[in-house]
Design a protein that fits this description.
The protein is built from seven helices and nine strands, in the order βαβββαβαβαββαααβ. The termini are far apart. It has a single domain (7-189), classed as Pyruvate-ferredoxin Oxidoreductase, domain 3. By secondary structure, the chain is an alpha/beta fold. Strands 2-3-1-4-5-6-9 form a seven-stranded mixed beta sheet, sandwiched between helices. Helices cover 34% and strands 23% of the residues. The longest helix is centred in the first third of the chain and has 14 residues, at 19-32.
């Protein structure tokens, strides 16, 4: 019924980290790359620090489901301390991808929990802090995670990603574009036999 190239992504974050913004911008990147995208949030309490889920779906066909994503191909986690693996990995396809914001802590734990799925990591918090993207003491990691997501999905080139961000974020545009570039370039796959 739906095309085989449909990709579904679930993003977990906390209010204020930019998970919803990242999903919306990823949808625009997908559109600029010739896909038909959808991006939508799911909120509990709408306040800073509360758990947030955002969803991205794109396909070469307009014909796509219009519902939450329960079996994503990719899951993105903005904060590895916010949710346990059983919630994060719930429904993630066996050949799916997991993207974590981590400086390296708990990577072996997540590698084991991910099983046969591909695991990718990027130190988005450190990159955001280095670029000066901090609000209320919390690193704003959305652009870094967006860059990493675009890279691991092989969605488009770095140039298209950077063009998409131009004019979209009124404050700190230059810093956000730089963060996206670093996320795109610094995301790494953690292989099954990796030693920590």
């Amino acid at each position: 019924m739906y095309t085989k190239d449909m990709v579904e992504v679930r993003i977990h974050g906390r209010g204020g980290q930019g998970a919803v913004l990242a999903a919306s911008l990823a949808a625009e990147v997908a559109f600029r790359s010739g896909y038909y995208p959808q991006a939508f949030p799911f909120f509990g309490a709408e306040k800073r620090g509360a758990p947030v889920a955002a969803f991205l779906r794109y396909s070469s066909s307009l014909l796509m489901p219009r519902c939450r994503i329960y079996e994503p191909f990719c899951v993105v986690l903005f904060d590895t301390k916010s949710l346990p693996p059983e919630i994060v990995l719930d429904g993630l396809k066996e050949k799916g991808k997991l993207l974590l914001n981590t400086a390296g802590e708990n990577v072996s734990y997540w590698r084991k929990a991910a099983g046969e799925r591909k695991l990718y990591v990027v130190d988005a918090s450190h990159i955001a802090v280095d670029c000066g993207l901090i609000s209320s003491g919390m690193p704003l990691v959305s652009s870094v995670m967006l860059g990493a997501l675009v890279k691991i999905l092989d969605l488009t080139s770095l140039e298209v990603l950077q063009e998409t961000l131009q004019g979209k974020i009124s404050q700190f545009e230059k810093e956000n574009i730089e963060c996206a570039r670093q996320g795109y370039e610094e995301v790494k796959e953690v292989f099954q036999d990796a030693v920590f």
